[in-house]
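Title: Comparing notes on inverse folding

I've been comparing how different people in this forum approach sequence design from structure. To keep things fair, I'm posting one structure and asking everyone to reply with a full sequence. Here's the target:
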């Protein structure tokens, strides 16, 4: 058990160091030597967990949709909003998420498959929008897959603009505005009236998700 815990911590240390280097330098310019220096681990320890720079980058990319989960909502359109606003909040506060997004948007990253995050987020949106449609929350013309792709693509552009203009300082405001502009063409007016689209929504959902994760961990069996 102790060895397993150490291995998990070492992997996390390496990923955090890689995230820092990727965010600062971009994928193409980043080197394994820089990541080793930032992590303070041996080359053998790094290659035990990751086979290459690309493998490291994929590990960072995967981290942005791990660990924090939005609690289920009766209103699935609100759950879509919460997923988007939570991600905006994490972009402002979590270096690992910022690095993952930097890699996802890095068009100079030759040889790196950057499609994963886009596809995963679209699938999350599709699942929620299909549930919203089944519950009668959406306008008749809405095609869930099309709407999911539009939201993911629009978010990518909004976050990129916020990063360039002010290093994400105004991101939650921009994303709140995005939701206010997009959702009237998607959700029924009665559903719109019930939604919380406030700029503080992401922070609220984050605190709620952390409490839920902590309660789940405390309630888990000791051997888990």
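Reply #1:
Here's my take.
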């Amino acid at each position: 058990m102790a060895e397993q815990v150490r291995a998990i911590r070492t992997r996390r240390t390496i990923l955090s160091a890689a995230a820092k280097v990727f965010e600062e330098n971009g994928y193409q310019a980043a080197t394994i030597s820089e990541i080793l220096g930032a992590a303070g681990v041996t080359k053998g320890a790094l290659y035990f967990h990751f086979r290459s720079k690309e493998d490291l980058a994929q590990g960072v990319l995967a981290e942005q949709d791990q660990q924090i989960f939005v609690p289920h909502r009766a209103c699935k359109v609100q759950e879509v909003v919460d997923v988007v606003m939570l991600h905006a909040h994490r972009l402002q506060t979590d270096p690992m998420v910022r690095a993952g997004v930097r890699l996802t948007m890095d068009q100079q990253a030759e040889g790196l498959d950057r499609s994963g995050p886009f596809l995963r987020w679209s699938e999350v949106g599709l699942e929620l929008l299909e549930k919203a449609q089944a519950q009668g929350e959406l306008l008749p013309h809405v095609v869930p897959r099309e709407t999911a792709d539009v939201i993911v693509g629009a978010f990518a552009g909004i976050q990129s603009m916020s990063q360039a203009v002010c290093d994400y300082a105004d991101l939650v405001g921009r994303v709140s505005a995005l939701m206010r502009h997009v959702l009237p063409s998607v959700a029924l007016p009665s559903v719109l009236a019930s939604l919380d689209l406030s700029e503080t929504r992401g922070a609220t959902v984050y605190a709620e998700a952390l409490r839920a994760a902590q309660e789940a961990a405390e309630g888990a069996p000791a051997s888990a």
